[in-house]
Give the backbone structure.
Amino acid sequence: MRFVRPWNPERWVPTFAAIWGAEALSLFGTQLVQFALVWWITKSTGSATMLAVATLVALFPQIVVAPLAGALVDRWDRRWVMIFANAGIALSTIALALLFLFNTVQLWQIYLAMFVRATGSAFRWPAMQASTAMMVPQKHLARVAGLNNSLFGLASIISPSFGALLIELGLPMYTLLTVDIAAASIAILPLLLVRIPVPQRRALNATQTSVLRDFLDGLRFVLRWRTMFALLAAAAVIMFFSYPANSLIPLLVTKHFGGGAIQFGGLQSAFGFGVAAGGALLGIWGGFKKRMTTALASLFLQGVGFAAVGLVPTNGFAWAVAAMGLVGLMNPVCTGSLFAIVQSTVPHEMQGRIMSLLISLSSVAAPLGLAAAGPLADRYGIGIWFLIAGIVMIAVAILSALAPAVRNVESRGAPAGMRRFTSGPSEPPGPSA
């Protein structure tokens, strides 16, 4: 198509900013609609079981679909992956809006729409992350990752609040859903105008291997690169402990502090503002010269924050707010640095698969952690899980800092011979300025 401009590395900033900004708007729309659908299920059923099913429906594609999605992302043109993912999300929302408009919506249709939307995200997020490594110079990857985390923090604050306001103003669901339709449509526009750089492997050799072979290549790549496997395993362990801790915050407020909705909102806001500030901090600062130093130091401080929440007495709610603010502040600094490490050390043609494996491992760890946290918290109190989560994070940070292979992963890169798993020639260099 003649109106599609080729990628220009010399003008990567405005072009990437347009793509990133459109995806950011789409994220806000997605978060807003997710809040609205969860609220509709809550008001319509009043059932915790139905809400739990909704959570599982949203997690299922991340566990099952994401690994194969990563293999497909590495085979296909990532620009079109993002276009079709956004289009699929928009179409599912249009169908749902029509059902609400004609008052024929049923619960199973809500679940189906949630599944389609989560599946679209399972393709869209790895495609965007893998493409970022080829659009952004390596020295700016940590800053971009910080901005991404700041964006997620802002979305977690603004989207639910805006959604609640629209609901309180009496907007019908079908009108509210149009916000996401518009946002997804806008996200597609810049992708139609600019070609995103693609790895040589996919451009030259995409049809010579199967999707299953690609997936297995990605899995073998991680298993044989022990340092990368250790990083992904550590991320899963952290998710195992941190996800349940965040889910237990309502019970921490009511059972430990004897508070209500205001206190719950205070803790949530402290975490959300911390995430937004931490993402902005990493975006401006960029972290230490060695990204792993930044990641491990922030993981250590995040563990201190979690442990502090677990140790705060019942009359120390203000300290819990401060500790959750520290957790939120350090979270994007840690995850943003780790994503930048993956983006700078993993070959471009493997990044979709590696990012998807990271999503899958984290998604599997989250419900397993919830299953373990519930009985333990019921028996020993809510604070015990926060304390354990903090101790584990501190231990992971210290042990990783003591391991030379992990500490120096950026300078060492992938071991010699690892490229045989990429099934093709090495990728072209990314932008250098």
